[in-house]
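Dear colleague,

As promised, here are the two records you asked about, laid out in our usual form so they can be pasted straight into your sheet.

NAME FIELD: protein one
SEQUENCE, THEN STRUCTURE:
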Amino acid sequence: MAKKESYAVIGIGQFGASICEALVQAGQEVLAIDSSEEVVNEFAGSVMRAVIADAQDEDALRDLDIGSFDHVYISIGKNVEASIMATLIAKELGAPDVICRAENVNHARVLERVGADMVVRPEHDLAKRLVFQQLNPSVIDYVTLSKEITLAEVNINNPKFFNKTLDELDFRNRYNVNVIIIVSKNDEVNQMPQANDVIQPHDKITVVGQLKDIRKLNDIVS
């Protein structure tokens, strides 16, 4: 089970509601905050606590001790000013990890400048993910770890890779990626692959590297 931490979600629209539901399902403690009494009443029974508050009211957020939460999600929708102010206040009150939803690239830039630790654009990010997976069918899933580094799970479908050791395939020098996990077609997981481990037909490998190199690898292993 995941480590139990405290979460506050400010703005319970479609995105914020989904965050709350996912956190509750993971057994986490969630404070849901919204300016709408109707929305708060709807969530009162499903989260640890749900309160009516103005995200731009510093005194209200201080009274809720926002700075003490391990993670604060600012998921306010169209009200860009409220989103920016809530982010600024949360950081000034000492919140260590503030994750914000942005409406567009300019909004994202401002959120980063006022202290957001992470900024997401759900529709934009989903579109990029869908297109990437369509263009790279052998990549089952991926996570962007930084601007430079991506972790991806890749299906090995090219017979040239079958029944060869990691040492023979030499992923690091030939493809500029590191293999960190191998999963067999029977879902047996090798979490510490060694140089003499053999890639079997249709194994899935988890690799770490630059996105451009993972794309090149996808073209080869497909």
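NAME FIELD: protein two
SEQUENCE, THEN STRUCTURE:
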Amino acid sequence: MLYVADRLPVINRFTAKIKSPQIQVLLVLTASVGLVSTPIGGLINKATTGINGLLQSTVGHWTGVGIVSALALVALLMLISDFVSGVKPRTLLLAAFTPALLVMVPGPIGSGAASTLGFVVTQVGSLVVWLMGG
């Protein structure tokens, strides 16, 4: 993938500005987003919604949404911060798990996150196909 990106006339100007570790983070993030935008993301959301439903009488209705949303937001902010300031070993882990955390938010918020991530992946894929002349 990196070889092809370096040889395409339009993309190589863009990739020249991005260092290799950052490209690796983008590739891991793309793979993770692609995975959670499949029916697996929906299953993850249904499972966490079910667990939240079982626990809501014990811990409250919005507790699961609040906890997982806070975790996802912190992971996303850390990912952005690491990406901008310099890639660290934890950045690849954040890139792999942040999309899954977004989908794990119980109820329609997590389901909406899965749909949104799927839409973004589809649009980026279409752009790549267009850039390659397809």
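A couple of things worth noting about protein two: The chain is about 85% helix and 0% strand. The first helix runs from residue 2 to 7.

Best,
R.
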